[in-house]
Records
---
Amino acid sequence: MRLRTLLALGVALSLGGCSQILRGNEEVRGTGDLGVIIERAAGRVQVVETTGRTVLGEIDGLGDLSHASLVFSRDGRYAYVFGRDGGLTKVDLLKRILVKRVVQGGNSIGGAISQDGKLIAVSNYEPGGVKVFDAESLEQLCDIPAVPASGAKASKVIGLIDLSEHRFAFSLFEAGEIWVADLKNPHKPVLTKYPGAGSEPYDAFITPDGRYYVAGLFGEDGLAMLDLWNPEKGVKRILANYGKGQEKLPVYKMPHLEGWALTGSEALVPAVGRHEVLVMDHGRWQEVGRIPVHGQPVFVVARPDGRQVWVNFAFPHNDTVQVIDVPTRKVVKTLNPGKGVLHMEFTPRGEEVWLSVRDEDRIEIYDANSLEHLTSFKSDKPSGIFFTSRAGRMGM
């Protein structure tokens, strides 16, 4: 009798242990297929996963998310969201909770994470400059006012991008300068300044190899380029015809330079104010072709294999998306996902593309190979879509 009792107790304990293990297993998941969608009007983000195309949960209390962007921690668990109201918010994608929020400025416009994932840098319109925070605690480590000379007014900072060797590059709008901050010691940043970069830089991007930092110029035609392999050569002006050109045209929305699509030896880039996508040789930085499109392009985004690029447009054509076949330079598909297509994001290996349709409160998902519509789900005034595959890429 005693033996049967002990055996029964042993079986019960064993089953209980298995149950604990199973419960534990159910809670374990990776982060490689996770993503975040900005619900700008609600001050909230949706946490999604791309394997089953589902919404895992929502995190609110993030403030003004107009023009919000974010970066991911190197393990893809945390997102650092940069709000327009100067808010910097750290959210946990696995627990779906807000970890910490600080209001670090009056008006901010994006940020970046350092190569080792330990520093978060935020660029500010107000008060102007860059502030750097500890990624774990969000404790401020240093403040870099964007004051080009003693007694001068601080400039708005745009185009803040992470570089190798614990550096960040950014541009000063009013001063027309590009600065590189070395943050090996985050309490004592070392600045290298490049004055005379160009009139009113408004956005910037970096090539995937981290070599070229390129800033678009609002005050003049062309772009400013800094070769980070040869920084002693200074900033060069490139693509003199990139911009409004000789014929002044109304510009409904400035294109995002992050939307440049690098495909092999060429770059497909949105023309400013024109119904065209420009084809550039990005070794010589010269225009080699133009592709007529439906409206003024905003984002020109390459599928991860580079075979196609997807293009969305400024108002009044922002209900349309076109797909360009790169080898033939032809539009092969015109889609009408709905009013207010603001952003496009490919899944990590490029089999799907997700579109935010702001004015119709939806996310639309397309097969990136067949170009067929797959499904959609509700989202409150969605804008940016960000997948965790960005965590391992420079400048993202």
---
Amino acid sequence: MRFLLAAGLVLALPVAALAQGTPNPNRLDGSGVPAATPVAHPAPVSVGETDLDFISSYYQQNGDHGAVEGGIGTQHLTDVAPTIVLNVPLDSVARLTANVGFDYYASASTDRIDQVISSPSASDVRYHIDLGYARTLKDKRTILSIGGGASKEYDYQSFNLAGSWTHGSRDGNRELSIGGQVYLDRVTLILPVELRTAATGSGNQAHGSGFDNRQSYNLNIVYSQVLTKRLQMAVSTELVSQRGLLSTPFHRVYFYDSDRALGTPGTLGTAKTELLPRLRNKFPVGLRLNYYATDLVQIRGFYRFYNDNFGIRAHTFELEAPVKVSPFFTLYPFYRYHTQTASTYFAPWREHSIYDEYYTSDYDLSAFTAQKLGLGFRYAPLYGLGRFKTPFGGRVAKFKSIDLRYGHYWQTTGLTANIVSVDFGFVMP
């Protein structure tokens, strides 16, 4: 029993390790469009049965510091992301997992790349797929997993490989998990329309000046320990090294000064495309505590310290308190607090000099404090919510659970967001 409790702190890691890379790696507080929709309760299933989750989320944000317009434009964005997650036991020691879906987003900010409202860049679709294989070794305390995936949108392609090793102690009170991921990305360079030149192409062309690449190397280490019958802890780190193109070519930066070589300044000032170093190392460490206050109430706490070579220092606190209203109905309010310093390379609109080596007006790299407050519920009756015959083969499937979650997010920069997600869980024969 203790081993299962301890494993609950880290077993989600190999599954999460197969998730897609985030579309916006500058968001450090876990806000924004989810990089991948997690399965709420990835519990083991019996051999001969398949866990199937239909997950969907709707995200909307508003703000006035869009990076496409140099930190002074709209940040309005909506995103719909349906996903199917499969967990298929092959036998008593091996299982396959699959995560397939797409994101459809509409962005008023990227619509300003061409400075034409309702341009082709106003919306896009990102498709993604991840496959994984996990196997428990003969000692029944070691799990190996491997996987890979890909995602594609109009100007972005990404491929990833992942692997992890998890080992539990004989008494089941301790567990160590180590996972690694490699992301290989290819980015189409799309420049703001007024910054295209004879060399990059000009006018309302779709592409700018070709392609560039990015590589990301992640190392996840998690150690979990059962401290008492009611208290568990896990210490983790996720070291990340990114190389290649780390700036966004269609982000404008406006300067307070000018240079003849850049021509006559426009009404908003002299503009160039964002420029950031081609190497970024991230060093986060986290502590998670789960406390079973009573048989009906659990308190989950998380703290993370983050720093990187872009000059950002951040602290994140999370608290979630699942309460069993009945044996099958659980409410879980949650709250997150995040604060960070600004990157060395960030400055607001017209506060950079054209002689700066690197420059950005992306407010994801600014100093701010953010909070997120929300409520979720899970309903999972013992015999499920219903049964039905599958379209092919006429076998009986079970509609086992429903999870619904809402969160409201706000920053001191003025950015606000709302996200609703739902998870319909099924067991297929």
---
Amino acid sequence: MQVPAQFEYDRATTVDEAVTLLSRAGPDARVVAGGHSLIPMMKLRLAQPERLIDINDVTELAGISLEGDELRIGALARHAELLESPVAAEHFPIMRDAERVIADPIVRNRGTIGGSVCQADPSEDLSAVFSAIRATGVIRGPGGERTVAMREFHVGPYETVVADGELLTELRVPIRPGGGSAYEKVERRVGDWAVAAAGAIIWLDGSGDDVTVADVGIGLTAVGADHFVSAEAEDFLRGRPATEENLRQAGQVAAEHCNPIVDQRGPADYKRHLAAELTTRALRRAMARATGQEA
């Protein structure tokens, strides 16, 4: 029988109250919302927080909306909300692609976007998505609010820049018209963690046979990419003709600069091969969407 160690429990109703409770509790407190990662770890005694701060009643953390030229995703928004959000799908189909292959409906109905990115699991899908599309995390603490680029948010496996006493409140994604995005994943069975996955967003210049890549973002999941990003593949592709050959070469660059580990999901060479292939597929599909050839 798996039973968590004893802990104290508080339920916050506002962000300010949650931050106050977190600051008062110190480094041994943890935030809980969906709980799909934290609770199993507590049952296995891999995590033993002395106090849980429940934020499920903090309604100001919920919702997905357009605000000016940004998409705002509250940290308490559920995976199912993001999957079904028309505004997210319109501007960032990469989010819909990723949410379709995250776990199962039970997890998606309860799990939160903020919880997923704060868990910082190397195999978690949305971290690569938000890094690829250059999202920004908004963090509230006792000293006020600060913003951090998602490309700097994760500092290692299961580690983020969110400090003790701080709370991720929302993600903001800049909307740039004319782009296309996509996410491709290989998993051992439906809903499993990724063996490897890649996400891409791309903007094009020109028309006909004279089309170049104006800008691009490439995220990688579960292959040991720094900050879930392949900056080298982005640099290779930016400004080059948007040809199949260059998309494939960008995939090879992504594979050469990631660092997958050997585990139960496969050998490193296999994962590196997947990084190349999935990056190419994501770029190809993102380009098709940018040119209106695919929804």
